Amino acid sequence: MQVAVKKTKTDLEQIKGAIAAKLDSASYSSWIAPLQFDVVDDVLVLTAQNQFSADFIGSVHSGVLSSVASDFGLGIKICVRGAKLPASVANDNNVQSYSPATVERVANVSVKTAFDSFIASEENAFVVSACKKLSAGAVTFSPLFIYGPAGCGKSLLADCINSAAQGRTIKMSGGQFVAEFTRSLHDRTVFAFKDFCRNCDTFILDDVQTLSGKRATCEEFIQLIIDLRAAGKNIVLTSNAAPNNLSGFDRRMQSLLASGLVADVVAPNANVKRVMLMRAGVSSDVASALATRIAGDGHLVGGVANKIKTYSDLMGETVTLDIAQRLLSDTLQKAKTPVAMVRGMCEKLGVSYDAVCGKGRSRSLVLARQMMMSVLKSATDMSLTEIGYVCGDRDHATVLYAINQIEKLKKTDLVLAAQINQMIEECR
To answer: Quick one: residue 350, left, alpha or beta (phi over 0 = left, psi -120 to 50 = alpha)?
Structure first.
């Protein structure tokens, strides 16, 4: 009897090895490895934790599984734990349940109404049109990857899509996804968590960059994107940097994030800031005067509007331009210094100022540093030596090499060229 049991275990290990050899590592570890393997009456019985997993495996991997089972002279059967199985196959009737901290929403707001809160400039017309198209139904450019600096409106666009998208929508921040995935692993409800994320028509993840460096979470997220795309679902992702500039992600992850439609959101221009202030109740003349002196950050504009409105309510008087300038003396923008320009570009490109001025040589960091040198050369009258000093005390030859490299890249990379032109305009 012991010999027979040992032989069965050996056969199962050989079967698992044969399946692993025919699948990529992510698919095998996510879907096949967690299955319970048994052989009953010359039938290979694979027991999944829940119905979604069984259906997905049966539709996507049935060919490979049937082929391997046939090689061992076996049939194939995929069951769900808790369902009735052949008598000799044990099961614990333990069906996973999962209660998310985030709540999925069923859309009931029109596309036009949902996007009224976003004030679109001419530069942002393309990304807003893409968001509206996705909200109206399934699109061919999923995932939609929206990136831009803090305060440009990425999260607001994600909220607009969440309100207007057809069918069931799930929206999470990157931090929430990490926390929920970690909790599901701890509670042993990871398959139920997978079910929850896939049971939607539109999946939105805000601030993808927070997944950086979290290997297990990234692997799960990659498989989630692949599965949602295969099922024809819409995916919306937001980040503070373009996919190829995200640090802490491997090349495979960056490539997948960029495989749909990548669109940048430009920071609010003077006209958008003026409209934002007027919508908040600031008088037209004050809004026009302040719009050119507030940094291009939607969060900052909202703070200015709140301060003016609160002053008016508490003091019972209309805020004139003189009062506004006194109230906002710590906020209104003064002349830009080279260091301030570099710090602003660091925020836009998703790198730290200390890293740019340090000795790091990673690919994304070097590219960001070279882009900043090229922008400073085009937007200011600084000499190459002065530019090198601001960017970490680099020498004249290093700055010249960086500028020449960027000029070559601009000829073949239109996204990078547009990004550099935008930063030049912001620094002038």
So the answer is: left
Query: What would the two tokens of residue 380 be?
Result: 């200011």
Query: How buried is residue 375: exposed, middle or buried, by Cβ count under 10 Å (0-12/13-18/19+)?
Result: buried
Instruction: Report the alpha-carbon distance of residue 76 to residue 39 in Å, rounded.
Output: 9
The tokens of 334 are what? 């003064």
Low-confidence ranges of the chain (pLDDT < 50): 1-7, 85-94, 106-107
Spatial distance between the Cα atoms of 255 and 323, rounded to a whole number of angstroms? 51
Tell me the residue type at 44.
L
Three-state SS at 263: strand
Structural contact between residues 386 and 338, judged by C-beta atoms closer than 8 angstroms:
yes
CATH hierarchy code of domain 105-264: 3.40.50.300
In words, the CATH class of domain 338-427 is mainly alpha
Tokens, residue 212: 């950086």
pLDDT tens-digit series, residues 31-53: 888 888 888 888 888 888 877 77
Q: How many CB atoms lie within 10 A of CB 210?
A: 19
* Nearest-angstrom CA–CA distance, 297 and 352: 18
Distance in angstroms (rounded) separating the CA atoms of residues 47 and 427? 60
Q: Give me the residue spans of the domains in the chain.
A: 2-80, 105-264, 270-327, 338-427
Residues 229 and 143: beta-carbon distance below 8 Å: yes
Residue 363 CB-half CA count within 13 A: 8
State the Cα–Cα distance between residues 209 and 407, nearest whole angstrom. Answer: 28
**CA nearest 291: which of 173, 119, 141?**
119
Under 8 Å between Cβ of 322 and 328:
no
* pLDDT at residue number 351: 86
CA separation for the pair 219, 234 (Å, rounded): 19
> Across the strands, what pairs with 264?
147
Instruction: Write down the CATH superfamily of domain 2-80.
Output: DnaA, N-terminal domain (3.30.300.180)
Are 42 and 88 contacting, i.e. CB atoms less than 8 angstroms apart? no
Give me the pLDDT at residue 10, please: 53
**CA separation for the pair 91, 83 (Å, rounded):** 9
- What pLDDT is attached to residue 325? 81
Instruction: Give the separation between CA 23 and CA 82, rounded to whole angstroms.
Output: 27
> How far is 274 from 287, CA to CA, in rounded Å?
5
d(CA 406, CA 410): 6
Q: Phi-psi region for residue 213, left (φ > 0), alpha (ψ -120 to 50) or beta? A: left
